[in-house]
Specification:
By secondary structure, the protein is an all-alpha fold. It has one domain. Helices cover 66% and strands 0% of the residues. It is elongated and about 50 Å long. The relative contact order is 0.09.
């Protein structure tokens, strides 16, 4: 049993299996790999931001999300 968490991108891939099973061109697989790489970068950046929060203008997680990803 693995204690690793599933990311949102992994959740989406696991819940859309027919897209990947029928993906002869590799389009969805390539799209998934790009999304996974972007998600990893965002998680790593968020971790770094959390480590540096005491030296910056600290905000709560909702404010952080809106400042970082909000429109």
């Amino acid at each position: 049993m693995s204690d690793k968490r599933k990311t949102a991108v992994e959740y989406l891939k696991n819940n859309l299996p027919s897209l990947f099973q029928d993906d002869q061109s590799g389009f969805y697989t390539t799209l998934f790999e790009r999304a996974k790489a972007l998600e990893q970068e965002q998680i790593e950046d968020a971790y770094g931001d959390g480590l540096n929060a005491h030296r910056t203008n600290f905000c709560n997680r909702n404010e952080y999300y809106e400042q970082t990803y909000g429109e």
